[in-house]
Amino acid sequence: MNVNSKIIDGVEITWLGNACFRLRGENVTIYLDPYGLSGDFPFEDMADIILLTSEYPQSFDPDSIRIVRNSNTTTLLPENISLQFRGDARRVEAGDELVDDLCIKGISIEVVPSYRPDAPKEAGVGYVITIGGKRIYYAGVTGLIPEMQAISADIVMLLIGDCTMNAEQATEAVVMLSPQMVIPVCYKCAGILAADITASIQAFRENVSREAPHVEVLFYQE
What we know:
Strand order of the largest sheet: 1-2-3-4-5-6-7
Number of domains: 1
Largest sheet: 7 strands, mixed
Strand content: 25-35%
Low-confidence stretches: none
Number of strands: 14
Shape: globular
Number of helices: 3
Radius of gyration: 16 Å
Order of helices and strands: EEEEEHEEEEEEEHEHE
CATH superfamily: Ribonuclease Z/Hydroxyacylglutathione hydrolase-like
CATH architecture: 4-Layer Sandwich
Distance between the termini: 16 Å
């Protein structure tokens, strides 16, 4: 198992760098914002589902998408992504619910708002994925937004960086969402030093332990 993989109640969550995650449950593999991937992936690591959140440069990587995508992959992407896809690619927007009869390969997916308050016209989407009985909220490239109050999730993935949320804003999001677990990620915006982001993650961990002590913080190492 990858050193940056954790198995939580039967769901393997692997961080692959920057905003990219892989979720693996029984008979399904999901990639969130494939980015920075290289080489040939074995068949068992190919995507059943790819979820794209935005066209933001540090999380949108067409070459990585091609590496894990094949003819059997279902790809969800926001309406405003310009890249065109062949095969099973579906445009989505916040408020869409792919549940019950509309679920994809046995996975329920809810599409939620995701945007930076200072750049609302660049809005993307976030996702709540139900896998292995867990509701996992992947926020995407977003700031702290009021729509988070309506989201219910067991596990929350937040991107922390100068172009998303700082430590204090991310802590406020955790208090608002009140999940069982939060996974903070150093989101490397252009021109931001890695040391600065690492310090923000450490401050976030300390804040959560003080303001939301019931929430477990799972931190992946670089």
